[in-house]
Amino acid sequence: MFKKKKFGQNFLKDKLILKKIVEIGNINSESEVIEIGPGDGSLTNEILQKKPKSLFAVEIDKDLKEILNEIKKKNHNFDFTIADAVNFNEEKIFKNNCIIFSNLPYNISTTLLLKWIFLKKWPPFFSRLILMFQKEVADRICAKSGEKNFGRLSLVTRARLETKFHFNVSKDLFNPCPKVDSSVISFAVNSETNFNNNELMILSNITNIIFNKKRKMIGKTLEKLLTLEERKIINYDNIKTKRPEDLDFKFYQSLVSLLSNRTKIN
Predict the structure, then answer these.
(1) Per-residue pLDDT tens for 115-148?
(2) Do residues 259 and 265 make contact, with C-beta atoms less than 8 angstroms apart?
(3) Long-range CB contacts (< 8 A, 24+ apart) of 2-7?
(4) What is the CA radius of gyration of the chain?
(5) Are residues 43 and 91 in the same domain?
(6) Are 147 and 204 within one domain?
(7) Do 202 and 178 belong to one domain?
(8) What is the per-residue pLDDT across 29-41, written as a single tens digit (0 to 9) for each?
(9) Is there a domain that residue 40 lies in?
(10) Mean pLDDT over residues 52-66, rounded?
(11) Interatomic CA distance for residues 101 and 44, integer angstroms
């Protein structure tokens, strides 16, 4: 099997790693599973060994249709479509408690994660995501305040999802071998936060503004975003010399609360 650069395909071949990924999902006979980018079916076959109620795969490469059709012939609970996962509407097929698996192509990994985070219907159709990312992207997703990778992606993810890092995967275990290592992360719906669609967009907008000047002190940016009264509420004098990555999720949550009644952020 070869890699098509336009699809960013790298196929994981290590059986032990594939089994470890599937185990994270706790699949049983009632599980409805979606796999994004099944490729040559390596992870697909491991999932099917757990005998889920159904497994539906979305694959962009029509040249892999024959491989997937062979899997379909042997498994009554498997089906697939040839489509672009970025534009595919999973909600038309699945209603709730689905598990999504994917070794995400590096070129669309963040796009797909944000697609699922920004779903208008929340709680969403899925209960868990088990995803593999380029390690650099995984580090940004999982970063905590005070860490150099903490930023917009960390915050927007935290607003709606609980994140758990599981393990790294060496680039040497893929065919063809990519340039970087990968990381496996699982996500569950965050029950501790309740960001509606408007609040999530506000968080996305303000973090885009603030982290665009990440290495600078946050004071000047907040002066442009907030009124004098609003700055008093967030104890502006105590934080104005801090950098954006040094302020925690609760701080950004308080900013969203202040701005949630506004229709436009200048």
Answers:
(1) 999 999 999 999 999 999 999 999 999 999 999 9
(2) yes
(3) 2/176, 3/176, 4/61, 4/63, 7/60, 7/61, 7/105
(4) 20
(5) yes
(6) no
(7) no
(8) 999 999 999 998 9
(9) yes
(10) 95
(11) 9
